[in-house]
Amino acid sequence: MRFEVWAPQAGRVTLHCGGATRALERDPERAGWWAGEAEAEDGTRYGFALDGGPVLPDPRSRRQPDGPDGQSAVVDHGRHAWRAAWPGRGLPGAVLYELHVGTYTREGTLDAAAERLEHLVELGVSHVELMPLCPFPGRHGWGYEGVSLWAVHEPYGGPAALKRFVDRAHELGLGVVLDVVHNHLGPSGNHLPAFGPYFTDTHHTPWGSAVNLDAPGSDEVRAYLIGSALAWLRDYRIDGLRLDAVHALHDTRALHFLEELSRAVDALAAEVDRPLFLIAESDLADPRLITPRAENGLGVHAQWNDDFHHALHTALTGESQGYYEDFARAPFAALAKTLTSGFFHDGTYSTFRGRRHGRPLDRSRVSAHRLLGYSQTHDQVGNRAQGDRLSASLSPGLLACAATLVLTAPFTPMLFMGEEWAAGTPWQFFTDHTDPDLAEAVRRGRRREFAAHGWAEEDVPDPQDPATRDRSCLDWSEPEREPHARVLAWYRELVALRRGQPDLSDPDLCDVKVTYDEDARWLAFRRGDVRVAVNLAKEPSHIPLGLRNARVLAAWEPVQPPDEDGMVTVPGESCVVLTQE
């Protein structure tokens, strides 16, 4: 088997493989690369020693059976016999479901999660979006401090378990999206700096030195990240990737990293003859991100739309701290703007940032399916002091209104695991750092962060306490009892309605017409022949829909069709979807 590694600063590289050692030779065709052959098979342990130093895992390791600091293991991808003949499933018309493997079930493994996929089929979603799977220290964590960007966290089941999960999802008709982190790597178990200039001090991020995308040596770093992305799509048959915090990818080169990545993904899609896509997380409100490359954009296929979330959250909760301040002044107006224009910040002044922010999105050219809409995500729940979901403070009726707005809006909907039954469990920030100093620094930092917002230290869960993770696991007995069962039935009805009504899957933002009353706390919008009305007030609201002959498609509480004046009466904290007869 051939082994190779990029180590441009090393004077000598030794391969330690299966108990034997051998010196690698410089590759005359590729500067900085070392290569050689050794006897190995699936599961063989190996690592590299640089200039007589300790044996380190392979930067391109496909498996880390003993964790980030242990030796790598060979993975023979050809050993897995794929069961499902999978043509792929693209993003247009999709409904996504964000899932964290470590808390979706109490067992916290990919195999256990696969046993619960029938629930998602019954719910009606099209894709399951897995939070990051790369190895990280300890057993439990969110996954955003991963290392070894080509490997799968061993406590989740490793590479073989991910293939079994994807195979089962595809058998059930579900696409699989994987969250990947290119903007930083975990501080613990990160051995990349020993091999080469993977990081640069030219730029800085909230997590320290930036990944080197534009400094000397960045050609190989970019190839490393793109190679990792393509490996997930090719070797594991993943359908799409969610790119974490792309605004932290600092790149001054003429060909931006994201454009290079999107080009490579589109080329692979043509090669394997199935749709593949990229979804970015970005707070820039810049439509160039999701504009096709042929139109001088970066070519990313979609992005999370936090503007829609923030407007919806402030309308539901009245919260106004931090970045919610810009939306809380007139939340229904903000919600109306996002429903019709995509972004709220499109060059407007942002009090939170102290400057103008964003750029207008051309509604006539950008399909709304390129924006993901949601009421909850791992970020928006887990980064609260106590990880409280909307269900901790809102009535079932308001939760139904939130679901209605997400699932009937023009955007690609995304749900966060458990929200479909108003889960009573929180989803808190938890870690399992094996370095005691790092564990204490994270614990103190978390408490200090929320103390600045008025929280008592004792009210902020200890991330290192195993009970914090345990509290965050879904309770699968909840969907069988009220009020959870009723909320779940409503989500299923809405997802089915979205699939059954062509107007609800129409991604034309220009066709969305919105009316609202800020003081009365109601909002209604039109999508073709479909009308949607939500009343967030406690008292009934009389909402003008402008049509007389209409049929109720779905209602949280009983609603009569509009009267002769085109007025519909919606009970307090309730919602209705109608169609013109």
Automatic annotation (TrEMBL):
Subcellular location, record wording: Cytoplasm
Boundaries of every Glycosyl hydrolase family 13 catalytic domain copy: 98-448
EC number: 3.2.1.141
Keywords tagged on the record: Carbohydrate metabolism, Cytoplasm, Glycosidase, Hydrolase
Domain of life: Bacteria
Main localization (coarse): cytoplasm
Reaction(s) this enzyme catalyzes, per UniProt: hydrolysis of (1->4)-alpha-D-glucosidic linkage in 4-alpha-D-[(1->4)-alpha-D-glucanosyl]n trehalose to yield trehalose and (1->4)-alpha-D-glucan
Region feature Disordered, mapped onto this chain: 52-74
Pathway(s): Glycan biosynthesis; trehalose biosynthesis
Membership in a protein family: Belongs to the glycosyl hydrolase 13 family.
PANTHER family: 1,4-ALPHA-GLUCAN-BRANCHING ENZYME, MALTO-OLIGOSYLTREHALOSE TREHALOHYDROLASE
Entry protein name: Malto-oligosyltrehalose trehalohydrolase
Native organism: Streptomyces cynarae
Name of the coding gene: treZ
